[in-house]
Amino acid sequence: MQSIVLEFDNQRALDEAVAHVWDKLGVTGELSCQRLPEGRLRLEIISEKPLRGSTLEKVGGRVVED
After folding, report:
1. Dihedral over Cα of 38, 41, 46, 50: its sign
2. Cα 31–49–56 angle (5° rounding)?
């Protein structure tokens, strides 16, 4: 299992990232979304398969943990 945390500036970018992870990449595992106090949005991906750096670049957002 691999855990990755990404941050986004707006809801639309987060929604597009979630759709990309589920629909296009076929990631199995867990996704968790939350709004941070400063207004950014955080997406935590717990993937059952390893995700490469190039794959994460296509998802978008800023990696804050890996």
Report:
1. negative
2. 65
Residues contacting residue 53 through CB under 8 Å, at least 6 positions apart: none
Strand order, beta sheet including 62-65: 29-35, 41-47, 2-8, 62-65
Domains and CATH numbers, the chain: 2-65 (3.30.70.260)
- Is 59:20 a contact under the CB 8 Å cutoff? yes
pLDDT in tens, 19-46: 999 888 888 899 999 999 999 999 999 9
